[in-house]
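Quick one, probably user error.
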């Protein structure tokens, strides 16, 4: 896999974070564990704890654990990969990321926002459903987001929706956050509804979630958005997102697309009924 260049890496930021992680150990075999059930043992303050990777609230509360776990040990490259792929495609179409006001959904502890900031975007607003994600961002990357909203996109309050629409975002990013129930199809569609038309979107999904037999709902949603002219997919690229807890490659698909028209209430209501 060819890595895309980036001006800032997680290592630059990790040097600024006072990590409490003393040791990380992984199981020797996976015993058929699904990706969202993977785990490791972590030594913090001399005490060994077992932590599930997708228990993000627990992971985010330990300074440096997310970076050390996913980027040092598991070789995740998605924040830089998606950000740089977005920039490459946008420039091919004669536009510039400097014009972007980005809505970063599933923002986590700000790693994608960090990369977007290096592209020179006008502004980045973060959204996540986990309070610990915003707390970690405020602790480790307080200068990345113009604002950060903790909210459920499937049940937006009037205050949150008004705030997010005032941002007038023209680009949506969501990285390593789709397909495991963290951000369901309705939430992704609502995020797309919040950005301007025309607009840009960049996201990634585990490759199995884009197959016709997928039961997460994303394969159907992406096909429908393209088929009914809501978006136009411009780039579709398979790459190694990271390795598993036993060192096996995990492949994702990166997608860059254009939003061509506003989403209909009918589409959003149909997703709510699923």
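Nope, works fine. Designed sequence:
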């Amino acid at each position: 896999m060819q890595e895309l260049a980036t001006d800032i890496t997680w290592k630059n930021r990790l040097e600024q974070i006072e990590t409490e992680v003393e040791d990380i150990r992984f199981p020797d075999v996976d015993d058929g564990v699904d990706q969202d059930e993977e785990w490791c043992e972590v030594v913090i303050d001399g005490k060994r704890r077992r932590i599930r990777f997708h228990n993000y609230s627990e992971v985010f509360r330990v300074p440096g654990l997310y970076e050390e776990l996913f980027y040092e040990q598991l070789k995740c490259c998605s924040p830089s990969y998606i950000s740089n792929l977005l920039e490459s495609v946008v420039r091919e179409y004669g536009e510039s990321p400097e014009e972007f006001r980005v809505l970063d959904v599933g923002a986590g502890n700000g790693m994608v926002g960090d990369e977007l900031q290096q592209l020179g975007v006008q502004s980045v607003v973060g959204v996540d459903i986990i309070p610990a994600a915003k707390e970690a961002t405020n602790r480790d990357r307080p200068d990345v987001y113009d604002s950060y909203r903790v909210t459920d996109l499937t049940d937006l309050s009037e205050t949150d929706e008004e705030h997010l629409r005032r941002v007038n975002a023209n680009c949506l990013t969501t990285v390593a956050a789709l397909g495991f129930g963290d951000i369901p199809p309705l939430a992704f569609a609502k995020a797309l509804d919040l950005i301007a038309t025309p607009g840009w979107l960049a996201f990634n999904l585990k490759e199995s979630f884009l197959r016709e037999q997928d039961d997460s709902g994303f394969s159907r949603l992406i096909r429908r958005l393209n088929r009914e002219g809501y978006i136009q997919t411009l780039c579709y690229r398979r790459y190694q997102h990271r390795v598993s807890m036993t060192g096996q490659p995990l492949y994702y698909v990166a997608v860059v697309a254009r939003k061509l028209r506003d989403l209909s209430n009918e589409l959003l209501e149909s997703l709510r009924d699923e």
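Residues 1-8 have pLDDT under 50 and may be disordered.
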